[in-house]
Amino acid sequence: MTLPLQGIKVIDMSQVYFGPGGAVYLADQGADVIKIETIRGDAMRHRYTTPYLTQWNMSKPFLSLNRNKKSISLDIRTDEGKKIVSQLCETADVFILNMRPGTEKQFELDFESLSKSNPKLIYVSISGFGSEGPDASLPGYDIVLQAKSGVLSLRKFPDGTPVPYPIMFSDMSGCMSLSYSVMLALWEREKTGKGQKIECSLFNQALAMQMQQLIWIENDQGSLPGNAPSAMASCYECFDDKWIAIVVMESNQWAGLCRVLDIEHLIDDPDYSSYENRVKNASDLAELFRAIFPTKNSDYWIDKLNYEGIPCSIVQERDDLLDDAQVITNKMIATDIHPKVGNVSYVMPPFKMSQHDYIESARLPAPLLGEHTKEILKDLGYHDEEIQSFLDRNIVNENIE
Fold first, then answer.
1. CATH class of the region 233-319
2. Closest CA to 163 of 182, 177, 143
3. Helix 18-28, helix 169-192: angle, nearest 10
4. What integer pLDDT is reported at residue 227 of this predicted model?
C-alpha cells in the first residue's frame, strides 16, 4: 500500500485528544509516528476505560487516537530523558507537544533549542488559550473552552442552564486543523528548506468552529440565531418512538413537506409561504408538526420525505452505525484485531485519494505503554547495557507483555 506521507517522521509528545488526534491523521497517511509518553503513560490510557482494558493500560479513546504509532515511555525530568527526546527530534520532520506555554523551556524542549540541531523541524505547540495574553498560563479543557468561547451560550435548557456538547468540540475539530497546518508547513519547507513553529490552541479552535456565528459588521446589530427554536430544522418523535430530523429551507421543500404531512392548504398561506415568515411563526409550526409526526412510524415518514427531496434522517444510536449500509459501502468504519484487546472498530479518515489505496485498516495497533522503547533506543544507537541501566533507574519504561 502506498501512502502520501511515507518517509515523514513525527515525534508525538502530546496527550489526551488534540495532539494525538492530529498525529493519528498523519500516521494514517503513512507517517512514521513515535509517541513519547511519561512513565505512567498518556492520561487518556486511564480515562473512559473498562476493567478489561485497564489491564493493558488502554481505553477506547486511546485505541482510536493512537493507532499506527510506536510508543516509548521515559522520564523527561531526567537528563537522560531530555537527551533521548532531543536525539529523536534531530532526525524528525515534525514534533508535537502540548504543555502550558513556557513549561517546555524547563525541559529544553522549546522550538529554539530543538531547531538548533534540526533547522528543518516543524514544531507544533498546543495550548489551551494561546501562548500570549492574560489566560496563556491557564489549563484548558474542552468544556472550559466551550464556556470561554461562547459555544455553551448556544445550547441551553429552558431554565437557562448551559448544555455542553457531548463530543470534545475543540479537541476533535482541532485534530484536523493540526494536521492541516503541518501539511502547510511541510509544503513550505519544500520551497524554503526551513522548518517553523506552529501554535494551536483549543480557544482559537473553538472560535474557528463558529465562523458563521462570530462575524461582526459595522452598524449591523443583527446576529445569527443560536439557541432559538426552528421548526424547519428540528427533530420530531414518531409513532414507533424513533425520532427523525428534517431541514426545510427552500420554497419547493416547504411545498413538499406540506404534501407529506397532508397540510397542502398551508403551502401558499402568507404566514408560512416565505422562509422569513416560517421562522417568525416557528412555534406554531413546531406545535403542528409535533402533533402529526407521532401518527406514523419513522420509516413511513422517511420514505415520504425522501420522495419529495426533503433532507431528513432517522436519529440513529451510535451502535446503529456499525450496521449502516452507507457506512459499510463507503468503508467509513474499519474493524481490526488488536493483539491484546481483540476487535477494535474506529472511524477511518473522512476522505479518499484517487492516487492512493484507500485505508481500510490500521498498519499498527495502538501500542502498549513503552512497547517499542528498546527498539527506538537501539535505533538511536544505545547498547543493551545502557538500555537496561535506563530501565533499572526508571528513566525509561517498557511493556511487552
1. alpha beta
2. 143
3. 50
4. 47
